[in-house]
Model the fold of this input.
Amino acid sequence: MGLKLTHIIIITCSILLAGFFSYQMYLENITPLFIGGALTTIGLTYYMSLIIKKFKTI
Done:
């Protein structure tokens, strides 16, 4: 497995984990952590899109 694919897999797992964290904080009504988790998920998604554009492959 190349470095590109490994990086994509790690970022994808991070997005899923941050999204799950954000969802759990939403259910618990903890607004600051929910907003932080949502922003982290959005940031990681943007970062992964930049990586995919740079590598031009998955």
Remarks:
- The mean pLDDT is 89.
- Residues 3-55 form one domain.
